[in-house]
Amino acid sequence: MQPIIDHIEITVKDLEQTVSFYDQFLPLLGFSPEKKTSAYIASHDKHVVEYSHPNLCIALTSPRESLKDEAVHRRRPGALHHLAFKAESRKEVDHVYSKLLEMDADIVSTPRLYPEYHENYYAVFFKAPDGIKFEVVCQKAE
Question: Does the structural domain 1-66 have CATH classification 3.10.180.10?
């Protein structure tokens, strides 16, 4: 078996607002808008919006009614700290960054080298509308 992730499901506070962000962000990573689906799963009382790609599926789900007002915090036990996407070049990282600026995304750190992680670690960090932290990183020497 290979350690390959098939899908990721993220519960978000405001599905409508977050879907708008992902509709713009995920195509930058190669997701096709035509591969987006949505459904209501009554047995789990949740709405799901799914973005499919041959290498990975990302699904956004609505929270349980009793938990909808909880704050997102990446340091909570069981929480997603951040999700990093691999870029093939620093130029790709810079391109995503420029598009994030156009989207008025919450930029945590602009693209730069992070030698404390690795000598060639070049990344941009940002947050989705719910506060979930993302990264686009290239670790190749250039």
Answer: yes
